[in-house]
Design brief:
Layout: E1 2-7, E2 13-17, H1 22-31, E3 38-42, H2 48-60, E4 63-67, E5 70-74, E6 82-83, H3 85-88, H4 98-105, E7 107-111, H5 124-132, E8 136-140, E9 143-147, E10 155-157, H6 163-173, E11 179-183, H7 189-200, E12 205-206, E13 212-216, E14 225-227, H8 232-244, E15 248-252, H9 260-268, E16 273-275, E17 279-282, E18 293-294, H10 306-313, E19 319-323, H11 333-339, E20 343-347, E21 350-354, E22 363-365, H12 369-381, E23 385-389, H13 392-397, H14 401-407, E24 411-416
Parallel strand pairs: 2-15, 3-14, 6-7, 10-11, 18-19, 22-23
Antiparallel strand pairs: 1-23, 1-24, 3-5, 4-5, 7-9, 8-9, 11-13, 12-13, 15-17, 16-17, 19-21, 20-21
Helix pairs in contact: 1-2, 1-7, 4-6, 5-6, 6-7, 8-10, 8-12, 10-12, 11-12
Bound molecules: ligand EPZ.
Length: 420
């Protein structure tokens, strides 16, 4: 089981390129089920979650081949419409195969994903939307069996904004009979990226990135080629790594607009941050003040950067209040940060972070993807060594993060140690 060993007290300096977005390539991969033929993607991050999605596509009858960070997916004849528990439990985004399978074949059988470390993460909004589109939904021995012959366009109003729900309905609606409107739609950049690819395949999706998305169903789609957008969460994580170590780090191949709330908060905290068309740079800073954040759906402060920002606040001047409004249990990183000397108290969905902590290296355990990133960040500034266990969580969402940090000057190495 891989571990990471990090020596703290190093300042990171230099330029680092961001990989393609995990949360974009995952829905894009499932959208290939909508059209027979050869789909091509470039700027694809090599991640454990991408491997899981490709394994599921293979089980459904697709084939794929890599060339560097370019990926070809061929989805001629699907041989199954079932997503098994062993894949779904490892990667909840597998639920995104339901919309395309319903649209392409009229039926889908997907294991209930179950909860995960950050919350119960139900899929009720996805299923209610499919029912409004004419699907019948049955829950049988842990599987959701959906059939819809045909799938009809509908007016969907989500009670709460759901990224996956918006994506699943988009992928169902593009081949449905008639028109679909999605109100209170998620506005994340990954939604826009998916809409762009669907339209390249011949779909008719209008309004992605706004709260109202309109889709007119078409008869057939054709495969296309697409470059995956840069990963805004990785970009933000790398920027915070530069900030927390008092370094000068320039993040390349990113889209500053996608992380404007983080940039705003870094500046409010006292960092000099410059930005260009496809780069953001944080400058050396010896001390910074605590600022409060409240996570929210895009364009609010991303919940996926909450843990990383909390790491930065543990060594800020003053007290920061961090409110998590998207997931009910996204403070799994707190006990591990406290073990390193952070002073954090929890009160419901709020974490009160006392700054000026003296962080000490310690053996810590990853619990979920973004919590792991927070542990790597604090270990960069802690005194002494930190041994991080279960780094497979990190590998789910960050392509070669240890090499990226190493190239910026971190004393970090991966230990291939026997199973724990
Ligand atoms: C996506 O998850 C991302 N994953 C998450 O990133 C991200 O944190 C999340 O959006 C919010 O931005 C991918 O894109 C693969 P939601 P998703 O549906 O779609 C509740 C990471 O670290 N909800 O927008 O699952 C849900 O419980 C991951 O990269 C329902 O109640 O998130 C949550 O409280 C973590 N019923 C809220 O909505 C539903 O049917 C937002 O969830 C669906 C969601």
């Amino acid at each position: 089981m891989d571990r990471m060993l990090i020596d703290g007290g190093v300042t990171l300096n230099g330029k680092v390129k961001v990989s393609g977005a995990k949360n974009s390539i995952l829905p894009l991969l499932f959208s290939t089920l909508l059209a027979k033929g050869k789909h091509r993607f470039t700027n694809v991050p090599k991640l454990a979650d991408v491997d899981s999605a490709l394994k599921l596509l293979q089980e459904l009858g697709a084939s794929y081949s890599w060339e560097g960070n370019s990926l070809e997916v061929v989805t001629n004849d699907l041989t199954s419409n079932e997503a098994h528990y062993d894949i779904v439990r490892k990667m909840r985004a597998s639920i995104l195969c339901m919309g395309p399978l319903l649209a392409r074949t009229g039926s889908a059988s997907v294991s209930l994903p179950g909860g995960c470390a950050i919350g119960s993460r139900p899929i009720d909004l996805h299923l209610e939307a499919f029912q409004e589109m004419g699907a019948s939904i049955e829950n049988k021995s842990g599987y959701i069996i959906a059939t819809a012959k045909p799938l009809k366009g509908a007016n969907i109003l989500f009670d709460i904004t759901t990224v996956g729900g918006t994506e699943n309905v988009m992928m169902a609606a593009v081949l449905a009979e008639g028109s679909t409107t999605i109100e209170n739609a998620a506005k994340e950049p990954e939604i826009i990226d998916l809409a762009e690819y669907l339209n390249k395949m011949g779909a008719n999706v209008v309004g992605a990135g706004t709260g109202v998305i309109s889709i007119t169903g078409v008869k057939e789609l054709k495969p296309a080629t697409h470059e995956v957008v840069p990963d805004r969460i990785e970009a933000g994580t790398l920027l915070i790594a530069g900030a927390i170590t008092g370094g000068d780090v320039e993040v390349l191949d990113c889209r500053p607009k996608d992380i404007e709330t983080l940039i705003h908060k870094l500046r409010e905290s006292g960092f000099k941050v410059d930005e260009g068309e496809d780069w953001v740079r944080v400058f050396p800073n010896k001390s910074w003040k605590a600022v409060d954040i409240t996570t929210a759906a895009h364009p609010g402060f991303p919940t996926d950067l909450q843990a990383q920002f909390m790491a930065l606040m543990t060594v800020a001047q003053g007290t920061s209040v961090i409110s998590e409004t998207i997931f009910e249990n996204r403070f799994m990183h707190v006990p591990e940060l406290v073990r390193m000397g952070a002073q954090i108290s929890l009160d419901g969905n709020k974490a009160v972070v006392e700054g000026n902590s003296i962080l000490e290296g310690a053996p810590v355990m990853c619990t979920d993807l973004r919590a792991s990133a927070a542990l790597v960040l604090t270990s960069l500034v802690a005194n002494g060594k930190t041994r991080i266990q279960r780094v497979y969580h990190v590998d789910r969402g960050y392509e070669g993060i240890d090499k990226k940090f190493f190239d910026l000057g971190a004393k970090i190495k991966r230990l291939n140690e026997p199973m724990e």
